[in-house]
């Protein structure tokens, strides 16, 4: 049996749209092309942004597209004990520390250093609380970003990648000031717990990869292989997302499902598949798509 395990991990802040279906289809195709398993994890750890019922609706959308997970669906909102154990491991090892800085505190410190980021740029944490809270109450927990220097990795589509994590990100948050678990910690802990060997996701998440690799190393966890898929862009050239008005997929009729899958396949470079017409059965179409994916991304 193949040791490959892939996953699709949507956030239930809305339903699947054209961009998120690209990531779902790519991760499913990669798992099937490798003869492996495909897991689904609902990343609902950021509870204030989650929409009631959206997780279940996403699962129904995936089922309509015949993208069915192997095994039980995981929900991050039920995984708090695992995240707490990981944080405690890091604290005990001296790799994580409490931070009392507000967003404004960080901006003020960066301004004093003449290092204010550009609009929408990364706020590189200046390390204010690295050596103590200086009388401030603890608000969040951060991971120490060390040693300095380039962190390099290989992306199966993008090729060689590198980032100076300390200079470009700084010590990043593991547990937020509002008490919620940060995305980086939750995804790393869950990928390891689900024995994920390959992460296939949108290119917009590529800049999260060095943070996750650093955290994997700190926790003594394996690093999966990564493949970041092309982004689907809106008419204004921005990434198609829920934030900029991406519409939920309409999947009520078989023709809607075929159209959505063909559009996603086209974005992945799988245009003109054999049997790609309005009469093709979903199972037959998906089998052809697996073969085409295998030809582009050979195991």
Automatic annotation (TrEMBL):
<dbReference type="InterPro" id="IPR000924">
    <property type="entry name" value="Glu/Gln-tRNA-synth"/>
</dbReference>
<keyword id="KW-0436">Ligase</keyword>
<feature type="short sequence motif" description="'HIGH' region">
    <location>
        <begin position="10"/>
        <end position="20"/>
    </location>
</feature>
<keyword id="KW-0067">ATP-binding</keyword>
<feature type="binding site">
    <location>
        <position position="183"/>
    </location>
    <ligand>
        <name>L-glutamate</name>
    </ligand>
</feature>
<feature type="binding site">
    <location>
        <position position="43"/>
    </location>
    <ligand>
        <name>L-glutamate</name>
    </ligand>
</feature>
<feature type="binding site">
    <location>
        <position position="129"/>
    </location>
    <ligand>
        <name>Zn(2+)</name>
    </ligand>
</feature>
<comment type="similarity">
    <text>Belongs to the class-I aminoacyl-tRNA synthetase family. GluQ subfamily.</text>
</comment>
<comment type="function">
    <text>Catalyzes the tRNA-independent activation of glutamate in presence of ATP and the subsequent transfer of glutamate onto a tRNA(Asp). Glutamate is transferred on the 2-amino-5-(4,5-dihydroxy-2-cyclopenten-1-yl) moiety of the queuosine in the wobble position of the QUC anticodon.</text>
</comment>
<keyword id="KW-0030">Aminoacyl-tRNA synthetase</keyword>
<feature type="binding site">
    <location>
        <position position="201"/>
    </location>
    <ligand>
        <name>L-glutamate</name>
    </ligand>
</feature>
<keyword id="KW-0862">Zinc</keyword>
<feature type="binding site">
    <location>
        <position position="125"/>
    </location>
    <ligand>
        <name>Zn(2+)</name>
    </ligand>
</feature>
<dbReference type="InterPro" id="IPR020058">
    <property type="entry name" value="Glu/Gln-tRNA-synth_Ib_cat-dom"/>
</dbReference>
<feature type="domain" description="Glutamyl/glutaminyl-tRNA synthetase class Ib catalytic">
    <location>
        <begin position="7"/>
        <end position="247"/>
    </location>
</feature>
<dbReference type="InterPro" id="IPR049940">
    <property type="entry name" value="GluQ/Sye"/>
</dbReference>
<keyword id="KW-0479">Metal-binding</keyword>
<feature type="binding site">
    <location>
        <position position="242"/>
    </location>
    <ligand>
        <name>ATP</name>
    </ligand>
</feature>
<dbReference type="InterPro" id="IPR022380">
    <property type="entry name" value="Glu-Q_tRNA(Asp)_Synthase"/>
</dbReference>
<protein>
    <recommendedName>
        <fullName>Glutamyl-Q tRNA(Asp) synthetase</fullName>
        <ecNumber>6.1.1.-</ecNumber>
    </recommendedName>
</protein>
<feature type="binding site">
    <location>
        <begin position="7"/>
        <end position="11"/>
    </location>
    <ligand>
        <name>L-glutamate</name>
    </ligand>
</feature>
<feature type="short sequence motif" description="'KMSKS' region">
    <location>
        <begin position="239"/>
        <end position="243"/>
    </location>
</feature>
<feature type="binding site">
    <location>
        <position position="101"/>
    </location>
    <ligand>
        <name>Zn(2+)</name>
    </ligand>
</feature>
<feature type="binding site">
    <location>
        <position position="99"/>
    </location>
    <ligand>
        <name>Zn(2+)</name>
    </ligand>
</feature>
<keyword id="KW-0648">Protein biosynthesis</keyword>
<dbReference type="Pfam" id="PF00749">
    <property type="entry name" value="tRNA-synt_1c"/>
</dbReference>
<dbReference type="InterPro" id="IPR014729">
    <property type="entry name" value="Rossmann-like_a/b/a_fold"/>
</dbReference>
<keyword id="KW-0547">Nucleotide-binding</keyword>
